[in-house]
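Interleukin-22 receptor subunit alpha-2, Oreocharis arfaki. Tokens?
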Amino acid sequence: VLKNQDLQDSIKPQKVEFHSLNFNTTLHWQPGWAREARDALYFVQYKVYGQSTWQNKDNCWGIPSHVCDLTHETSDIQEPYYGRVRATLAGVYSNWSLSCRFTPWRETMIGPPMVTVLHRNKSITVKLQAPHSPYKRKRGSKITMTNYYDLLYQVFIINNLLDEQHRVLVYEGKDKVIKIQDLRPGVSYCIVAKTYVPMLDRISAYSSRQCTVL
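Tokens:
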């Protein structure tokens, strides 16, 4: 049987880190190294950098899961935050494991735009919609990420006749509607897009493919 001190060390959560996409922010951790650690329960606290007192996150107090949603708690996106987690098992509590400092505005990942594709004759019209944040206006509509950053869009076309992996950049800029002309009738084309934040030099993953046959 592990002594209390050993149990304390062996169930201590590992790798406590923030993950954030479009300001949807969660704290993640891994269980301690003891085999018994998979039966541990976890307690999460958070605070703004510089504050002396930690806040309990009530929904993540004594939970078996290894993730805790802190979107609401980190909504002041310019502030730096810390999170910390401790584990309990068989009446023994581990020490706290601390995350690195996390500033949502600097560190959230930006998602790709929503892409809609319409075709006419030999052209494709691409409509782009910025990703949404989890935050809402007073009337209830979600605030898009363009509220927080200057976003550029990169639009790529894939000619399925040539090579499904070969993406050609056809547009980069702020426009939400892009027309791609002089395409070949009868050919299947797919469009993918990315969101680019010049100020942070950060780029999103590709959007899902939207395909059409002219």
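The longest strand covers residues 188-197.
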